Amino acid sequence: MNQAVAAEGRLKITEIFRSLQGESSSVGWPTVFVRLTGCPLRCTYCDTAYAFHGGQWMSKARILEAVAAFNTHHVCVTGGEPLAQKNCIALLSALCDAGYHVSLETSGALDIAHVDPRVRRVVDLKTPNSGEMHRNHWPNLECLSSHDELKFVIGDRADYEWARQALVEHALNQRCTVLFSPSQGLLEPGQLADWLLADQLPVRFQLQLHKVLWGNVPGR
To answer: Global pTM?
Structure first.
């Protein structure tokens, strides 16, 4: 990011829109999504590659104005990888100060330690099938509190076994809610559900509601 732009507190925004939250414990709630532009990762299953480039610079005040226009209590800051823009931290705090129920969707590759504790952090631990497993920033686990969430996108049995081992090794379910989600087009949801039931894992099965309703449509 240009230092002058960063100093002004602006962020590059791909889109701001209102939809139903399709993931996490807030699934189903009408939510305003603030999608930041850019991501240092290239996951094989990425469904928001359109947010890698482009976008428009917006001041924090203009973003807050756009969010307020939707008159919606829940706000989700997502990407791309939102924490790749350092001004994201200030935006999250400003949204909390404005009284919103704020969540952050992050890849888990970047440090979450400085994120406002009022924000519910949904951290995506990258499985082997993502191609970005080596980017996981494991110290993030120590930052998690009970209102945060960890997500695993499962593409095959190898991903499942890796995630199950991580769950046990790091006692993840004792830190926060853990979500297992089938990777669309790679793993049948029923197959993952059967594995979870057979192993009695203390995790929450998750489908992406927005894709069930509208498919892979940007801004939905």
So the answer is: 0.91
Task: Give the orientation angle of helix 157-169 with respect to helix 189-199, to 10 degrees.
Answer: 40
Residues 75, 101: contact at Cβ < 8 Å? Answer: yes
Length reported for the chain: 220
Give 144-186 pLDDT, tens digit per residue: 999 999 999 999 999 999 999 999 999 999 999 999 999 988 9
Q: Can you read off the two tokens belonging to residue 64?
A: 């807050």
Domains and CATH numbers, the chain: 3-152 (3.20.20.70)
C-alpha to C-alpha distance for 166 and 143, rounded to whole angstroms: 16
106 - beta bridge partners?
Answer: 123
Biggest CA pair distance of the chain: 55
Q: How far is it, in rounded angstroms, from Cα 8 to Cα 136?
A: 30
Q: What CA–CA distance (Å, rounded) separates 154 from 205? A: 11
CB of 96 closer than 8 Å to CB of 118? yes
